[in-house]
Amino acid sequence: MSASATGLDRQTLEALDWPALTEHLATLARTPQARQRALALLPAVERDEVETLLAETAEAQMLVSSGEEPRLGGIEDIESAVAACARGEALDLDALRAVAGTVEVLASLARELCQRADEVPALAALAGRIALAQELCAALASAFDERGGLSERTYPVLGELRRKIESLDRQVRNVLDELLASGGLDEVLQDRYVTVRSDRLVLPIKAQAKGLGLGIVHDASRSGQTVYLEPQQVVSLNNERRLAEAELAREQARICRELSALIGRHAQSIERGLEAAVAIDLALARALLAAKLDARRPVLVADPVVELRQARHPLLVLQGADVVANDLALNTEHPVLVVTGPNAGGKTVALKTIGLCALLVRAGCFVPAAEGSRVGVLSPILADIGDRQSVADGLSSFSGHLRNLREMIERAAFGCLLLLDELASGTDPSQGGALARAVIEQLADAGARVVVTTHYAQVKGMGVADGRVVVLGMEYREGRPTYRAVPGMAGESHAFEAALAAGLGDGLVERARQLMDQGERALGEALAALERERGRAEQLAAEAERLRSEVASREHRLAAREQLIARRSRELEREAAAEFVSVAKRAEQQVARIVAQLQRSPSQREAARARAAIQRIREEIKQRVEPAAPASPEAPVIGDRVRIPRLGATGVVTGTKDGELEVQSGRLTVRVAPDDVELAGGGRSPAVGDRAQRAAGTGGGMGGSAAPAELRPHDLVRLERNTLDLRGCRVAEALHRLEEFLDRALLDGLDGVFVLHGHGTDALKKAIRGALAASPYVADFAPGDEMQGGDGVTAVVLRG
Q1: For residue 371, which of 317, 423, 264, 298 has the smallest C-alpha distance?
Q2: By the 8 A CB rule, do 750 and 722 touch?
Q3: Residue 627 DSSP one-character state
Q4: Across the strands, what pairs with 220?
Q5: Domain harbouring 640, CATH code
Q6: Is 503 inside any structural domain?
Q7: Which residues pair with 797 in a beta bridge?
Q8: Model pLDDT, residue 523
Q9: How many domains are there within the chain?
Q10: Better-predicted residue by pLDDT, 516 or 644
């Protein structure tokens, strides 16, 4: 908010519930300074600053999502302490410890983010402002030991004095213990213990013995029966101890002055470092807020537009409400949005959603809307929401509304956003409607972006009369609001339905209907009928879309089945070829054995036997290679699409059994006689013809088949030989078995395989899918569909 902000600017933030959002943001900050800054957060107005803030939020979101956010714990509220040092004052040990701990965290934060400048350049730029002198960091780091006291290693005089005090203390206690043990004071002792009074070790004695000259009395009990005596034997030792303690205090004070002076010399760099750390903390808080809102980074544009896709009210999302998302837009072509509909139907929520999202963007926050939402930097943002009545100022609701309206008209300009809830309400409807329309026209002429909620028919009609205005109706269906915004619908107010729901009575409501102006009643009935027709049209459109999706799904499954059949045909060809090679090899071996036998014992009888054996081999090979009689041109073969007239169904031939065809039609497989079907579509495709030749054993041989269509994971069919079951395996074992399985699958010429891993804790599934993503053998993979086994299975397409 600029320095020229007025009462309406502050009223706007209150009306849009901005303080509630900043309070939530403050709870997500780690440092006390960032929490204070969040509570007082005001949106930026310059586009460059907004772009930088959004970049910081995006980088912070990346760190948060990866669990690598920088450490901010330990940054304390030290501004006043640093300022005192700058004025030449000395800090006590507690304040010095706070400054030292904070400086250490600042230095660590700067190192961590600057090392990752390539990943998080915006945050690294902030961290670059943390420029703390090595002299300062080293002195403060070495000043304190691990217990938080001044370090004896850095300040050896402190160690000497502390050890001297400890030695004197032991000597005094030894003398007192000897006095107690000797029995010489038994007559005067009140109790047998050593205590401290006035920082000196004393003994409790009876009050009547205080005048015996046994030593110095330092205190007495409340009852007066006991006095605390420092025996003469320890007075000199206690005096020496007190002198050592005084010297220790002077040395500590000197060190505190020295460290405070050092902090004072570097006060400006510490303050700049704190500012940078607070900015980083706020970026992380904005990222955490985005996660809670399920928000997305909007596209920041130069034009003053608000185009929100599936937007939700931020505070309702934070409250855990089931928010209905809506598309809301203001742009250069349509700078005015009129929101209509029943009371409590969501009009004001839609208006506030636009205002809050515009403010969030200016504050560098993401918006609770879908990807692709576009928002410009709109300023100023002014809102007139709720009751403006003020007894103190002598204003009625309408007068307060007009005062705000006057300021809005005066400040209306290109790039501003004006939010008007129930514009010109609180007065005569006919005059109020006319006034509202005139105000909207003037604000649009000034180039402002305007959102208006209204019940006025004159304002609703602007969607037809003025091309700059878009009317958005809040849907009301089956006696209740749905909170869904419908573009182009001039929503009816449904006051009579609301009155009936509130229990005002049928008679009263019917009388109200009769008292309506005939034109108003006709308009209301027309709007209500339009809403009903729109509802029915949407239902029909939804049903049509459902049917379209169902048909598309069926076609997809059918295409997948056809690919499966083609793939199976190729597999059969490969198997036949392999079998032929095997037969040929056996024949070659048999001939070799016969030749060897003839060479060993040449005779007519052996020659006859050899001719008979070779003839048998010829016959066997002849049976393998000679083509069978070609199929009738009209006889369907596997892979043909056929029609079954008596069933009125269409399907694909998937096999034959007992002289009948097996036809897959949708989810059903039926068996019919060949005469009961006919080829669908008037013929057979070339690919199907090739398959028919190969099925019949004519033409094509073992090569020349068309290249298979590109496989997708959901096209695969799960069989026992192409499935690897890894359920129950540990991750390391499973990954080893997976690699071996993929090796074998490629060697076996498989197009695809399945990996069965189950659900469990998801650790095994994630490890397997990670390995598949990195494997050079894998072309594609996806979770199994319903027919393949669901998400407990991963379908894998192998590279050719």
Answers
A1: 298
A2: yes
A3: P
A4: 227
A5: 2.30.30.30
A6: no
A7: 752, 780
A8: 52
A9: 5
A10: 644
Residue 488's pLDDT band (cuts 50, 70, 90): confident
Whole-structure pTM value: 0.62
Give the 3-state DSSP-derived string for 735-771, with helices as H, strands as E and coil as C: HHHHHHHHHHHHHCCCCEEEEECCCCCCHHHHHHHHH
pLDDT band of residue 747 (cuts 50, 70, 90) is confident
Q: Does 303 lie in the same domain as 433? A: yes
Q: Does the residue 274 lie in any domain?
A: yes
Amino acid letter at 16?
L
Max CA separation in the chain (angstroms): 152
Q: Which tokens is 544 given? A: 């049509």
Cα separation, 355 vs 359, in Å, equals 6
Token pair listed for 772? 């598949």
Residues 325 and 373 in one domain: yes
Q: Report the alpha-carbon distance of residue 199 to residue 359 in Å, rounded.
A: 62
Q: Rounded to whole angstroms, how far apart are CA atoms 443 and 382?
A: 12
The tokens describing 356, both together, are 């809050």
pLDDT at 511: 72
Are 766 and 674 within one domain? no
Based on the fold, state whether residues 705 and 718 are members of the same structural domain: no
- Same domain for 91 and 164, yes or no, is no
pLDDT digit string (tens) for 760-772?
778 888 889 989 9
Quick one: pLDDT band at residue 693, thresholds 50, 70, 90? very low
Please give the Cα distance from 176 to 230 (Å, whole number): 9
Find out whether 366 and 57 touch, Cβ atoms under 8 Å.
yes
What's 22-78 look like in SS3? Answer: HHHHHHCCCCHHHHHHHHCCCCCCCHHHHHHHHHHHHHHHHHHHCCCCCCCCCCCCC
Residue 481 and residue 333 share a domain: yes
Residues 363 and 490 in one domain: yes
Asked, for residue 12, whether it belongs to a domain, the answer is yes
Give residue-wise pLDDT tens across range 20-35. 999 999 999 999 999 9
Range of the domain at 684: 627-709
